[in-house]
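pasting for ref
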Amino acid sequence: MRNFVENMALWADITDPARHFEIDVPVRAVQEPALRSAIFAFSSRHIDRQSKGGTAEALQYHNHCLQLLIPALSGSKEDINDVVLATIAILRQLEEMEPDDNQFHLTGTARILNTISSFGSSGGLGEAAAWLCLREDIYISLISQKPLRTNLDSFHGSDVFSRNDDFAWASRMVFLLAKVLSCAFDPCGHQTSRDPSALQTMAREVEEWNSSKPASFAAVRSVPRGESAHRRFPEIWMLLPVHVVGIQYYHIAKIILAFATCPSPALASQNFKLSRDIEKTVRRHLLMVLGLAKSNPKAENTLFTARHSLVAWGWVIRRKEDQEAAEALLSEMEARTGWDVRQSIRALREQWADSDSDW
């Protein structure tokens, strides 16, 4: 429990000023055995990240948690409360750490949010868990290039759209990225042409966020990437982890929108200049995403976002030195968080082997 509070809760609380997973969840877990078992499963997996010896213990807690959850999930909607949602959201974090992600708990959280729409604007632990679930859905959407499973309507009543603090601004950028993903791809993973004006509207909203964001979102130190092995990514120091998330999600939204300027994959292959211009834009924003993660070690879960972005678009990194730096960042992420990145590195190496690395 102590490991969860001190080292892992911030992953969930990154845009939550009330820090529900650090402060409220442990207290609630004293009286809620399912929530407690979910925390122990996640935390035991994290504690043994070096030796890889916590798998059996994590599985034991995970199975116990599921046994306790079954009655609530098998009953009526009234049986699903904020503790149930937070419990499954934590199980989803555990699920994400495994090399073979079956997305079982992601399906569960999306089903709950789409069935009980009040969570997204309920305040308290329920809304905090809903925002965590949304970010978890965003990660899979980035990798699969498919729309979100979560219905975004449930978040429209959230007070993040009326508050003016930095946490609310970061949450609005999370929501904007979710909207971009929802309209950029069809269920088959192809860029959609259902409503081209929708993406133009989204592009304006993303830039309005960037131009209107508080001055506290400005970097306190910014050094361009260099040719040395120690600075292959830009160095960007932000004030707080919440600022890192807001800017990182902005750059990811710009990547999605850059690809969306190409009406079809065929056009990109036919129009060489447009294809190269898009790739340069994507690479520039991707390097910013990676640089933000590397430059702000306290914002540990931005490493997760960097990993997901590399899985989706790592092929645009052409220089061998940059590829080695990307691998090093993934290895650092595994050492610090316990995420298994071997499969990600293997997939990236296969992509890079098929491309011209002399750019």
